[in-house]
Amino acid sequence: MNVVVVGAGLAAANAVSELREQGHTGDIVVVGEEQYLPYERPPLSKGLLLGSAEPDAVFAHDRAWYDEHEVDVRVGTVVTGIDLDRGRVQLGGSDLPYDRLLLATGATPRHLATADASGAPVLHLRTLDDALLLKDRLQGRIAIIGAGWIGLEVASAARQAGAEVTVLESAPLPLQRVLGEELATVFADLHREHGVDLRLGVTVRGVEHAGGKAVVHVEGSADVIADLLLVAVGVTPNDGLASQAGLAVDNGVRVNALLRASDPHVFAAGDVANHDHPVLGTRIRVEHWDTAIQQGKHAARVMLGADEAYTRLPYFFTDQYDLGMEYVGHVDARGYDELVVRGDLGERNASVLWLREGRVLAGMHLNDWDAIDSLRRVVGGEADDAVRDPSVPLADLG
Ligand SMILES: Cc1cc2nc3c(=O)[nH]c(=O)nc-3n(C[C@H](O)[C@H](O)[C@H](O)COP(=O)(O)OP(=O)(O)OC[C@H]3O[C@@H](n4cnc5c(N)ncnc54)[C@H](O)[C@@H]3O)c2cc1C
Hints:
- This protein has 398 residues and is α/β, with parallel strands linked by helices.
- It folds into three domains: 3-108 and 235-303, 3-Layer(bba) Sandwich (FAD/NAD(P)-binding domain); 111-231, FAD/NAD(P)-binding domain (3-Layer(bba) Sandwich), CATH 3.50.50.60; 322-396, FAD/NAD-linked reductase, C-terminal dimerisation domain (Enolase-like, domain 1, 2-Layer Sandwich).
- Helix content is 25%, strand content 31%.
- The protein has helices at 10-21, 47-50, 63-68, 113-118, 128-136, 149-160, 176-193, 240-245, 289-303, 372-378, 385-388; strands spanning 3-6, 28-31, 71-74, 81-83, 88-91, 94-97, 100-103, 107-109, 122-123, 141-145, 164-169, 197-200, 203-210, 213-219, 224-226, 228-231, 235-237, 253-255, 266-268, 273-277, 282-284, 315-320, 323-329, 338-344, 349-356, 359-366.
- The strands form seven sheets. The protein has a five-stranded parallel β-sheet. It has a five-stranded parallel β-sheet with strand order 9-16-10-11-12, covered by helices on one side.
- Helix 1 (10-21) packs parallel to helix 9 (289-303).
- It is globular and about 55 Å long.
- The two termini are 43 Å apart.
- Flavin-adenine dinucleotide binds next to helix 1, helix 9 and strand 22.
């Protein structure tokens, strides 16, 4: 059986290592548009900008590993089409046959037309090259549009590098859709305490270029004049290739519980996969590091014949200033009806559970790195009296 992986990111790196670990001896080709071997993106908005992580440390494996494991990684190569009937992927002038195909094409940052058209110094952050460029320019005044994870992590790194930072966000609080009001307030306070000019509930009306600077016109607040503007307003999945090929696509490549796409020889994993999650009972596309790793491995096992659903709950982490947190679970658009806090949110040393109709939907800790195993045990289960009682230690639950 010969396997082709489109996209050389984290899902790809983990899929190929799992294929070899499980004893697959057939050909494996990974085709990636970037000039780099697969790498980890989390350091790009944290350690790499802070100078605590070196660019060389971000790679999933070095070239010798791929050679040793007979994995043919073709960097700087774009897959331009997929022929499902003939089982081939097109690479511009040539094509490659596959018996099993993994789509691991990730996602692309959303752009703002006004910023792109302005000619002002504007960056987005997705690739190692983006991060290296950004690291060199973390001085003076930085404006960031979007108070999501990446916007806030860059704000933290930029403040620590001594830059003045303004963050513009249209929602009433940063991260409110994911965390709810109580925890979103913790992040708003954190950034303000560190000197970020956090402007919430504002709308960017336009961006202009004047004297080498970006001038951001903001409705409901003064203009922001910045040496650099980072647009961090989310990503869209790279699912164009799949839809052109005739695969089912809807906010990502639609895959079943096993991660199989609408063609039985094709799979998707990571940021591009819209997965029918059997535990959550809903479709979900997760843009997190852990999901890319675990779905990559899972798709590999299913390609080799495993008949198992992917059931792992979404998990992510962030580091901002002296705050580290991990989150497991998922609160969907219906929200939550109860929040149980153990510890002190003000001190940013706490664990939190989100509940709805007596079930624990998600859990998170702030600066309590021993908590994640206990959170994993509790999330997804019934919320009994002990779960609801903050005086019962988290470690005693589940
Ligand atoms: C700056 C940053 C910080 C992050 N921090 C965190 C964090 O702290 N915690 C967390 O949980 N998650 C974090 N994430 C998210 C996490 O990194 C992603 O979820 C993960 O990288 C997704 O992996 P992937 O393999 O699905 O896609 P990617 O890593 O995006 O890889 C996909 C690759 O496919 C290539 N490709 C696309 N189309 C084609 C084509 N047609 N032909 C060839 N190649 C193609 C792309 O160029 C790309 O290199 C962060 C992401 C970023 C950008």
